[in-house]
């Protein structure tokens, strides 16, 4: 397993990748990053499951800035990532959390949740 610092950098990189248009619009890239069992409680209030399929257009393009990233080890192969995003189009701040699992020699997102906030308050 990776050191705590390198794991944090690696998971931050994966979270940032999931915000990139070229990843969000690629079914192939999304299936690499999202576990088969992936599900999400979105900030919109919608629940989404990977098993329901990723459309040909992927999961939609967003313009977000990620900040205040941290990780919390849950087990030797599971990590909770917590961070905030700012949606530059809607001007919305959101608290976010993801559970990443190490499976098949790579980290994959198993769960994600977004909760809207009023401003950029710190944790």
UniProtKB/TrEMBL annotation:
It holds the Pfam family DUF4440. Transmembrane segments: none annotated. InterPro entries: DUF4440, NTF2-like_dom_sf. It comes from the Bacteria. Residues 12-109 form the DUF4440 domain. This is DUF4440 domain-containing protein. It comes from Domibacillus epiphyticus.
